[in-house]
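Q: What structure does this chain adopt?
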Amino acid sequence: PQIVLGLGVDDPVEADPLVARTRLGLGDRPYLVCVGRVDRSKGTDLLARYFLEYKRRNPGPLALVLLGQVVDAPPASPDIITPGLVDEELKWSAMRGADLLVSPSANESFSLVLLEAWLAGTPVLVNGACGATVEHCRFSGGGLWFRGYAEFEVSLDRLLGDARLRSSLAAAGARYVDDRFRWPVLVRRYAAFLGAPDTGATAAAVHEER
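A:
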């Protein structure tokens, strides 16, 4: 007997987007955010390269914020901001204020940060070579994916140019998280799988174990 549950998501941290704009020196610039290790194996070199090409072809104030431990630094650019490891307040503030979160990794097995972005009210753009993140987007309707620079540029143009679409995608993603990946939902499914007679007691035990 087996079951695939996924990972539970806690309530989002209440954080004002102005915190990120102030601490990262963004001012009123629109920006993309990527959360996780800044590392070639995570696709951040690909994202930086695509982003700089997009900026060359589409000049403007758009910035890219890479939040996380810097293993492989991106090219130096006034449009790419890499503060390194940050606290939860800044992470959630940056996600809330971003036009979208980009997940450039082709090798994710789940990607908790996508679920957090949706709870923060932010749509996502993911690497089309990553089965897990594309599946999240397909099932949720909460984001788009790219399989090369051309699709990256078209997706950015579509998302950045339509605030209503961004809001709609983020809302769909949040519903998906609430339906599938909140801890009470996972505990109920786990208890049903085990045939537990007392779901409430099981939930308390699992919470205590966490």
